[in-house]
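TL;DR need structure tokens for one chain.
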Amino acid sequence: MPAQHPHNNLFEKVMELPQAAKALIEHFFPQKILSELDLSTLRQAPDSFITEDLAPYFSDVIYACQWKGKPTYLSLLFEHKSYYELPDLQFMTYVVQGYQKQKRKWQTELKAAKKAKRDYLKYVPVPILPVLLYHGTEAWQDKTFKDLFDLPTAAFEPYIPSIDYLLIDLNQQADSQLEAVQMKLLLAMLLLFKHKGDKEYVLKNFAKFFIFVEQTVDTITQNYIKVFVLYIYQTFRLDKTDLNRVMLNLPINVKNEFMTTYDYLIDKGKIEGKIEGKIEGKIEGKIEGKIEGEIKTKLNVFLDLWINLPDASDDLLMTIAKF
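>> reply
TL;DR here they are.
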């Protein structure tokens, strides 16, 4: 599902790489779970358990994996709020949605098997393991949905729903611990998330966020440089002084791509601002909202095409986006 938040955008782009998911699991999962997973079978599943009402809270990337020889889902969720919010109710909705999708798929297969007079398997749900990556500024509170209730007696406790999840709290990870992560692209993302509110740290350690770039920048690496630059642009809005400062520490193969991308984003922002200004000055009410939304959508389509098709010419992308 399309993410509407810069943290979501970066998370989904990085975590769509199986090697990133594998590195995250190997670094953060408790040994008692890790020892039972066959990570050689890890693959991304084309599913999302996020419903429209959960979209403001979570971004999910779903992986399938063998667990003691049996299938399971590893649901990597991302909490992108900057404050703690009790997630239990949201998680319960999320997991139930996942099991409902499994049940509907089985029912479709059952119907086809009966029609073809074939044998069919009974419904056996695949377990879902919710994994929450948290990078908020407030300390994560060890509370559950049950804690909200003022129960007259403990006899009611069995009837109050609850759910557990695997928490990855970046506040509890020192940079030295994160630097043990085996995949450099994942490490760069985690460091940015952890220090998203500390611009001075980002400026001092700017080269760390591009440590995934080797000597030669291929098309895939170029794409991820753009993704990281987009995140930095949206999150920190570096001014000219900031840019001059960070350019000193960047390798030449990153520096050129960074400046080209950042200059483009600045120009795009100026164009978008002018368009929005004209809309606000000339159009009112519902018509204004509709046209503004259409233009914003086209700008977002253009940016997405530009990130994902780095070799396409600007003229081609402009034609596709109908500008």
